[in-house]
Amino acid sequence: MAVKKLSKEKVGEALGELSKFRLIAPAKSDEVVVFKQISDPGEAFLDYGNSTVPPKKFAFPQTETLFRFMVGSPELKEKNVEEEGTTVIFGLRPCDARAMSIVDKLFSWDFDDPYYLKRRELTTLVGMACVEPPSVNCFCTSLGGSPFGTEGLDMLLTDMGDYYLVQPLTDKGKKLEETLSAHLEDAPADDEKKAEGMAKESEGKIRRSIDTEGIPEKLPTLWDNELWKRVSAACLGCGICTFLCPTCHCFDIQDEVDEGGEGRRCRMWDSCMFEEYTLHASGHNPRPTRRERTRNRINHKYSYYPSRFEVIACVGCGRCINLCPVNIDILDILDQVVDA
Amino acid sequence: MKNPYIPYEVKILDTWYEAPGDRCIKTFKVTFTDEKVWDTWNHLPGQCAMVGIPGVGESMFCISSSPTEKGYLRFSIMKAGKNTSALHELEAGDTFFVRGPLGNNFPLEEWKGKNVVTIGGGIGQAPLRPVIQWIRDNRADYGELELIYGARTSADHCFKDEFKEIIEEGECECHLSVDVEEEEWPHFVGFVPQLLMEVAPKPDNTIAVTCGPPIMIKFVLQNLEKLGFTPDQVYTTLENRMKCGIGKCGRCNVGHLYVCKDGPVFSYAQLKEIPEAFA
Amino acid sequence: MVDVNKLREKAKEVVSRDDVRLLIGYRPGTYGFRARPAFVLGPDEVDELIFTPACVNNLASYITLEEKLPVPRGEEPDLRKVAVMVKGCDSRALVQQMEEKAYDRDRILVLGIPCKGVVDMAKVEARFPNVLERGEIALEGDKFVLSFDGTREEVAREELVADKCLRCRYPTPLVYDELLDEAVERFADDDYSDVSELEKRSAADKWAYWEEKFSRCIRCYSCRNVCPMCYCEDCVLDRLQPQWMRRSVDISENTAYHISRAYHLAGRCIQCGECQRVCPVDIPLMELNRKFYKDVEELYDYEPGTSVENPPLLSTFKVDDREDFIL
Amino acid sequence: MAENSDFEPNIVAFLCNWCSYAGADLAGTSRIQYPSNVRVIRVMCSGRVNPLFVMNALQQGADGVLISGCHPGDCHYMQGNYYARRRFNLMRNFLEYLGVEPQRVRMSWVSASEGAKWKEVIEEVVNGVKEVGPMDQFKRRQLNW
Lengths: 340, 279, 327, 145
Description:
By secondary structure, chain A is an alpha+beta fold.
């Protein structure tokens, strides 16, 4: 079967076709690019760098009900994720898709997380290759990713100018290609080759890097190193680096009860940079300062996670560097780890 | 597979206070409202459960009864925060919710034929109680059992009646202490690590299990080393703030280990490698 | 512009003093035009200190941010001064903190930097994207001069300057032990035109405007944490008993959060603009703070962070305060 | 917002113990009829009313909020109502700035002897809220899930 293309003129039609599913695409809220559910294809904004908030929230929502209850009643009504229906996340970046495949390991480790896994099963990821690295702080190539990376994706689109090259990568992707078949045309024969060349070129444009070799083993040996005090001194303890990280997956569980006793137990993103994150009811806090919290963040990503799941929990999207209010730079920290 | 976030309802059969004060300790003896849950419920000494009330929250507690005690579970809970305060309001006949069993257990199979000494402080006796009970109920499988336990005052001692019973029956050595001198106290006065040195259990073919406040554990571990215990002969349990209890939510880690999933039971040999374990 | 050599010399002198524990200043960032806070503990560390229009952070926040850990038995608490570099706007945070008796004046040593405006880093990065190697920004006359990758660009000041600087009433610090440069005369004023314009809209319009903004909020609390005036040890947002603010993120809770945050700054916000600068989803938080700022000035003739002697606005009253709105 | 004649608003009123609560009580014992849309929460002083209370009431389904205290100079605690006045004025302006109609958040002075004034105040508040309709800006909405 010939490789297909989606002409830019037909993107609207194609998105219209896909809106029979829960369709998630990048869109603008004022000047901020966010992934959101769209009903009108015109809302989609595909000519973007990367979104501020990663699309992980459509697999792992910032706030999610686990079950509902009436206070005092023994009956617990479990959330049925199936009701959310088939979801297509359209136009996400390869790093964010790869991040989901990394987080999958955690949610399917030992205990299966039924909410996350069901949602992932129902979701098809349509990636948009980075013809240009979206940010000066991209470093995906250092972590095994690529601007044209396919890990975690079901389909990859590549911007070829007037049209997108459409490459299905999995069964889900092939199914989606069939769904879209009326809007696709045959792509020029040498396009796949051309795309490979573009990938190389884009990789060459990635300017930041870190050699991760040996870091997971080295980090635990630097436990009491004075570098942690130094790199965390400016930290404000906010949640930017973790909430905007596509691989950060920590959550809190809280109960919320409304007037009349109707309540829900829900989970919401939590951040290891918050003071209350590890605070015991006794008042004791095993990570009392920003030093311990920063150390834990780096260790979790670059040492604990790989020691359990054989992959570093960072995809090099650069969000934490771009958006840190005080320019705490994970690559700067890792450089210091390497030098220590 | 069952959704691991959905708890079971339990009914309180009986409840009583172990220790008084602002941070009083209350024991709950409960059974599942749905008797059928017992068919699938298997826990071992050392394992934990998330205990809570929908609308208030959940927190992790060790199951302080041994599986050899049939027909009920026990939890001994100190009043500290929002959830524990709400639990303390409950009386016999009331219900709450339990999710588990979670975490690992004391390797009691491996300990067969060995002597066991437990060293507890305050509410730290709660995870040791199922170990003691298990050994008492499988007496022939184990060697000597020796108990060391202390709390601030005699009123703060948990499981007073059971200690009394053990002492009266004389089935094992039992050493008690209080931190400060009080009238008519027949036992040791001083901190648990001191009592441990006083008792000086022999390390040969012996497992030491300790649980209590972090500062006590720290000195107990040092003293056990002085007594000649090797790190793999010493076990303890850790605790941390937990939310999911199944190794997802991320907060309870000490180093690369999740207390909720890889713990709460750790050998000192494991923990020695992890500086965060005693933070 | 502050002479960097003079700044480093002064810093060296300050951190060498026996009664100074730490100096908080600025150093070059890790990429592009960024600058970042520097924490200088000894005289050998002063050589990286800078001050340029890229030094946007309000360092006053760090005085109250540092965790107070229990002092180990047998040790004395370290009561030495913290030295801090402040621009005009930042200095008002110090004034307001001291007005609220957050700490005593002798706990800090203030190095004042008269300032003619800092850049809005977002504008700089939009104009010169993809600058990775360290670039420099200087203000020369009414132009910012940007040098990077061997090139030199001049841009009119208005194009890159932070919005707050265009309304700056206090370019020279209001509190200092030493001024590192000559005082700068007031060059701008605030007419609150942005606030007035929004005030004029209909209720439905206003809500539509804010709903869009608040619905983006991810509640990372960076606006709270960066704020020099948000230094409560126990924040109402983190409390569980009673839990005024739910952790779940939806339009209702987000609005409640933003009302609380802004209201807690009523009569306290000193217009440093840090909250809006750090917001990753570009919520115009200053438009909220400035509404209070404007009202406070108009109704109570009070300007936060201008005099240590003033009692905090909401802990005082006048018998003849306005009450035409009361039934 | 369309005027809705069937709309019966929920008003939460925070009344100070010493004046307004007694005033409302007097209205009752004097058999003065006033709209039954008000749910009263007694506080010791209008100065006790944290702006969070107002916000929380609006979140939990109140269509309007009234804070009522002693007349200036009559505060049982000497100054509580003066502080409340400042706080409330800023709160009210701010909510209006966000798009919450000013009719929804009101403040009044009602003394222990002003049963008749209490009725007037309530009528004014209820009519004001009726004019602007149900509060739907940031009321907690239970999402489907």
